[in-house]
Design brief:
The chain is mainly α. It has 38 helices and 5 strands. Strands 2-3-4-1-5 form a 5-stranded parallel β-sheet, sandwiched between helices. β3, α6 and β4 form a beta-alpha-beta unit. The protein starts with 6 loop residues before the first helix and ends with a helix.
Length: 784
């Protein structure tokens, strides 16, 4: 199917020429078609191709398919000497009535001895004609008639508009997308008003001027208009109906009202009834669905920002996974649901905002809203509790991205739990989400959500409460609220010990030690870290053991006890890898690179920092990436790579997204802010421009820039690969020989878990995605 993304590559300017008096019945609208120049050009070019006999413009209600078809037909009129004929199929409901409608527009009458279809085909058999068949979704059963006409009339072409494909072998499809949307935040800057506007804003402003001639885009209303366009998904019909009210309501007032979305109307006498009301336009599509599709469409209204088929099946109820997929496909074909992107690992379906409002209204009217919302909350509770464990493992990056996609649904589940006084559900949700919030730098949202859930929790000591208290401690520490952080950590420690939860006890002790360290009490911090180590050993918990060693190692590094720091951090890295936590491993590797720098061994720092950055790329964590990128910038400066370091200062730009952590000697010691030092080094270069460029860089760009900076200070062209330990080499030799982990463990007298840890470490150093690839790379680089 052709899409607007390919339009710019294929569009070309048609030469201006005098128009012939071609026969046609096109009734062109009195207002210009805005924001569709590329669509018109591309669809026209498709129809000009010899092999394209049938082109279907597909899209949801209100997207402007009819207007686009009329514009294309008008553009191509001179190519069809026998006429361009527009046929409105909206009032029809039988195949026979379609033949009658086409014949009526062409002035063809039935004759004795021949059916009307036979007469129509006979007249068109030697004519060059373009038929525009509008609203074909109403009569999809008549698609065979289109095939008959095309087969018998070689010079006839058909341009159809429909919310669902005709599914003929002749058919070429073009998806009509909503108008380009603005980014509302950008229009808070008055300078944006002088630039070309996104098509949706341009459309709204033009239509508003039609009812209020002095309407103008200003610094005062631009952001509201941009937000309005986003809320209406760039649908031309929705924008037109909203603009029609601009003479009585300012954009800000339109935006603050929610109830008007499905009931927008405009009593224009020259428009069909279905186009005078947004609700009528959507009702039109809804009426075409079968019962299963209607039920699923209603239930999709509870999702915010889309959903996976798994989620849809969990909430929609009885249809089962296979039935839900079938109905989803039907809704996509009817242009009511947006299909997943081609690159989506997990398919995701989304309703446009105005469709969602309609679906929710239908769900409420059917009495299904309350149970659907409850199933929605239950599904997302299960999802985040699965995610909470996975975020501490090697699949962390995939789960972070998945929670990113589902964040609006997670907020909706939390809001449901609060509104329906379900404190246990709320507490479990926030306890599982805490780590995700900190990963994405959402300190304020996380703190607010956790405070509310803990206050509303009326139950006794429980694992969810202990976990929520631990997660609550983190933003309090980072934001300098030490007294409340200590209270939360002490309560979590008491619950952990009462329940025999070694991990909760150890983690609480780590944060209590962090607080003592931040206040300069080295002795108390050391005692608490030692207690955390004891708790983790008793619980046989590698993860909390790695966390405690990472923080204690940071303290010893600050105290210049370099050997002890290295020992603690090295053992912490081993345990972190055993636990499979790539984020923790990345931070420990960054700390070990700091140890090497303290010794002046910059060449040894590079492989550790390189591996840390590779892990950061997989971990999708702001703070881990920030620490590693700053360390890389400092290393680049110290080794003469100042130009690279300047670009790498994008790491500091992350402070616009996350609260600046309170300086502490615990965890990984933050190096002094490098901005002033690098400014001095780059006194003769355009530092300000580099800095601005760096602040706009995305997370993955930071990692790539940091890795590039490290290549300039390496002594070994691939030190990370060359830094394989002897045991890692032993394991890879056996992997290369085709042995499974269990047999490797037996041959080397190791546990399977340890073999897996060695493999994970080797894969990280070699930049490999799996064990087989790691072995191949090691063989190719002659490391075995």
């Amino acid at each position: 199917m052709a899409t607007p993304s390919s339009v710019r590559e294929l569009t070309r300017i048609r030469p201006v020429r005098a128009r012939r008096m071609t026969a046609h019945n096109l009734r062109l609208p009195p207002t210009p078609l805005l924001g569709r120049d590329h669509d018109v050009a591309f669809a026209s070019q498709l129809l000009e191709r010899d092999e394209v006999r049938l082109l279907t413009l597909l899209g949801p209600a209100g997207v402007g398919k009819t207007r686009l078809a009329l514009a294309v037909a008008d553009r191509l009129r001179d190519d069809y000497p026998h006429g361009v004929w527009f046929v409105d199929l909206a009032p029809l409901d039988t195949p026979q009535s379609v033949v009658q409608a086409i014949a009526r527009e062409l002035g063809i009458r039935e004759t004795r001895g021949r059916s009307l279809l036979q007469r129509l085909v006979r007249v068109l058999a030697d004519q060059v004609v373009l038929l525009v068949l509008d609203n074909y979704e109403r009569v999809r059963d008549a698609a065979s008639l289109v095939a008959d006409i095309l087969a018998a009339c070689p010079a006839v072409k058909i341009l159809a508009t429909s919310r669902a494909p005709l599914s003929l072998r002749w058919e070429h499809r073009y998806a009509v997308a909503p108008l380009d949307l603005p980014i509302p935040q950008r229009f808070r800057d008055p300078r944006r008003l002088d630039r070309p506007l996104p098509a949706a804003m341009d459309f709204f402003v033009a239509r508003a001027r039609a009812v209020q001639p002095d309407f103008a885009l200003t610094a005062a209303n631009a952001a509201a208009i941009a937000e309005l366009c986003v809320r209406l998904d760039g649908l031309p019909l929705a924008l037109e109906l909203a603009a029609a009210r601009s003479h009585v309501l300012a954009p800000q007032a339109l935006l603050t009202s929610c109830a008007w979305l499905p009931t927008l109307s405009w009593p224009a006498a020259d428009l069909p009834a279905r186009q005078q009301s947004l609700r009528a336009a959507i009702d039109w599509s809804y009426a075409l669905l079968d019962d299963a599709e209607r039920a699923l469409f209603r239930h999709l209204g509870v999702f915010v920002g889309g959903c996976t088929p798994e989620a849809a099946a969990a909430v929609a109820g009885d249809g089962g996974a296979a039935g839900v997929l079938d109905s989803l496909q039907g809704l996509v074909e009817q242009s009511l649901v947006e299909a997943p992107g081609a690159g989506d690992k997990i398919p995701r379906f989304r309703l446009l905002g105005v469709m969602r409002e309609f679906a929710l209204a239908q769900l409420a009217a059917s009495g299904e809203l309350a149970p659907a919302q409850e199933r929605h909350a239950a599904y997302y509770l299960d999802l985040v509790e699965r995610a909470a464990a996975a975020l501490l493992g090697p699949e962390r990056g995939d789960w972070v991205r998945r929670l990113d996609q589902e964040h609006d649904n997670l907020r909706a589940a939390l809001d449901w739990a609060i509104a329906h006084e379900a404190p246990e559900v709320e507490l479990r949700l926030v306890a599982a989400l805490g780590h995700f919030w900190w990963t994405r730098g959402l300190l304020r949202e996380g703190r607010r959500r956790l405070e509310g859930a803990l206050a509303r929790d009326g139950g006794g000591p429980s694992r969810p409460r202990a976990k929520a208290l631990i997660e609550y401690t983190i933003p309090l520490m980072w934001q300098g609220d030490y007294d409340r952080a200590r209270q939360a950590a002490e309560e979590a420690l008491a619950i952990g010990r009462a329940l025999g939860d070694g991990r909760a006890s150890a983690e609480s002790l780590v944060y209590l030690a962090w607080l003592a360290d931040a206040e300069g009490d080295d002795d108390r911090a050391s005692r608490l870290y030692a207690a955390a180590l004891t708790e983790s050993r008793l619980a046989h918990d590698a993860w909390s053991g790695a966390l405690a060693r990472m923080n204690l190692g940071g303290l010893r590094l600050h105290q210049k006890a370099i050997d002890e720091a290295e020992s603690l951090l090295t053992e912490g890295l081993r345990l972190g890898r055993e636990a499979g936590d790539i984020r923790l491993s990345a931070i420990l590797l960054t700390a070990l690179s700091r140890v090497a720098c303290e010794r002046g061994d910059f060449d040894a720092a590079v492989p550790a920092l390189t591996e840390a950055l590779v892990l950061c790329r997989r971990a999708c964590d702001l703070r881990a990436t920030y620490l590693a990128a700053v360390a890389a910038a400092r290393l680049a400066v110290s080794r003469g790579g100042a130009d690279r370091a300047a670009a790498l200062l994008a790491a500091l730009g992350l402070q616009h997204e996350i609260d600046r952590p309170t300086p502490s000697r615990a965890a990984v010691p933050l190096p002094p802010w490098p901005r002033a030092a690098v400014r001095e080094v780059l006194a003769a270069s355009p530092f300000a421009a580099t800095w601005a460029q760096g602040e706009s860089s995305a997370l993955h760009q930071l990692v790539e820039e940091a890795l590039a900076a490290l290549t300039e200070v390496r002594a070994d062209p691939d030190p990370a690969a060359g830094d394989l330990s002897e045991r890692e080499r032993d394991v890879l030799r056996l992997v290369a020989a085709g042995l499974p982990n269990k047999q490797i463990a037996q041959m080397l007298s190791l546990s399977e878990r340890t073999v897996k840890a060695y493999l994970t470490s080797a894969m990280n150093k070699l930049g490999a995605d799996n064990r087989a690839q790691a072995a191949v790379v090691a063989v190719q680089q002659q490391l075995l």
